[in-house]
Automatic annotation (TrEMBL):
EC number: 3.6.1.23
Single GO molecular function: dUTP diphosphatase activity
Gene3D superfamilies in the record: Type II deoxyuridine triphosphatase (1.10.4010.10)
Protein name: dUTP diphosphatase
Length: 204
């Protein structure tokens, strides 16, 4: 778990640095991005009592991964070392909940985020438990999304030349899902393997 956390922290730092080399000094409102994602997550899960809704757990999982990106950024911005943060995650993040209503765990996490603008690992773990997401699953999805973000930037996302629709008329996100499922997430070069596989598909 600690090694996976260290890998994700390094990838997050690299991605943030690609957006701005001095990203830690920019005063980015990571907490705001988090609570907005929580709202989107609730829409995917369903909360409207006046219409039939079924939880879209796949989209909920994707939103949790997006929240994790911003949460890692808050932890990195604290000034703690990668090893210190990895220890903090290992000792604080417990993937368990005693709350049968997932939406209440989401609201508790959102309220805590808005209260102090920090990232609440313990409450995030409760949301993971609510959709049966393991840490290994979080890692696999996170690395995949992070690498796709890099791939987009490297292939013209900023200037508008990037093609989001790839062969077979499917979007890059769909190809990403297939790629990460065929690779060994436990391999030390997992992120590089994902990037290479995306490049092969993009060239078709």
């Amino acid at each position: 778990m600690k090694q996976q956390t260290r890998t994700m922290l390094q990838l997050q730092d690299q991605m943030n640095s690609k957006v701005h080399p001095e990203w830690r000094a920019q005063g980015n409102a990571w907490y705001r991005a988090i609570w907005i994602e929580c709202g989107e997550l609730m829409d995917h899960y369903g909360w409207k009592w006046w219409k039939h809704q079924s939880p879209d757990t796949e989209q909920v999982a994707l939103e949790l991964v997006d929240i994790w990106h911003f949460g890692l950024s808050i932890l990195l911005e604290s000034g703690a070392s990668v090893d210190e943060i990895a220890e903090q995650v290992a000792s604080t993040l417990s993937i368990a909940t005693d709350e049968p209503d997932f939406r209440l765990d989401v609201e508790a996490f959102t309220a805590a985020t808005l209260a102090d603008k920090q990232f609440h690992l313990a409450l995030f773990g409760r949301m993971m438990a609510g959709v049966d997401m393991s840490y290994s699953e979080l890692y696999r999805r996170y690395v995949g999304k992070n690498v796709l973000n890099f791939f987009r930037q490297d292939n013209g996302y900023k200037d508008g030349s990037y093609r989001k629709q790839w062969f077979d008329g499917r979007e890059d996100n769909e190809h990403l899902v297939e790629v990460v499922e065929t690779l060994d997430a436990g391999a030390p070069d997992f992120s590089k393997a994902v990037y290479r596989a995306l490049g092969e598909r993009y060239a078709k």
